[in-house]
Each structure stands twice: as C-alpha cells, then as structure tokens.
Amino acid sequence: MAKQQSPKQKQIVGRVMHEFKNGELEQGAGGKVKSPRQAIAIALSEAGASNEQAASENRKRMKKTQSGKRGGKAAQQHTAPQQKERASAHGATGGSTTAGTTRAELYRRAQEAGIPGRSRMTRDELQRSLTRH
Prior knowledge:
- With 133 residues, the chain is an all-alpha fold.
- The chain is 58% helix and 0% strand.
- The protein has 2 domains: 7-74, no CATH class; 95-133, no CATH class.
C-alpha cells in the first residue's frame, strides 16, 4: 500500500469496501467476494495503491477505475450525491419537470403533495404519482 493515499484513492477504497459490505463486490469470475482481506486487496488494486503491483500497473488500474468501467448499485448510490452537487453547481434545476430529478427530490415533492405510500415507491413510481396528482 502507498504510504499516503490521495483523496481520490481513499474514495475508491471506500466505495469498493461499501460494495463488499452490501454483498455486491464480485471477483473476476463473477463469484461474490466473502473475505474481507480479498475485498481490501481489490480495493487497493482498483485505487492504484497496491504494493503487490508495479507502479505502471497501479497507474493503469487507477485510470481504468476513474474512466467509470466499474461500479455496482452501491457505487452508483455512492456517486449520486456528487452528481447532484455538480448539477446544482452548474445551475441545473429540476423546475416543474420531474425528468432527471433525484428520488430524494421526488420524495420531498410527494411528501408536500401528501401522496400515500410514497416511502415504498421507486423513483419512477414517484414520478408517475406526481404527474397524476
């Protein structure tokens, strides 16, 4: 492991460990990772911080990870708040339309509208119920 990880590397390691915790981390052959030690090895490898690989291999893996070649449900949930921040930083607003709006925003609107059963609804179901309401 590198002596000190960059913030990006720490984020990648955190995401991979989150996938492991949620049972979504898979090995190369498609089997689920069950060993915490194996999960750590995968996380460090993806972050380009492994002491078992050459520096060139670490750089290559970090570049592949950053290009978005990987990510399960947990990874997508982990990056969703960052995407929302970027959208708001660039002046994107939801307006009255629900296209491109996050589930949290749709849930808030459904709560204001008093739609029953909203807590169990998916993003698409919330969109449909809000357009009907």
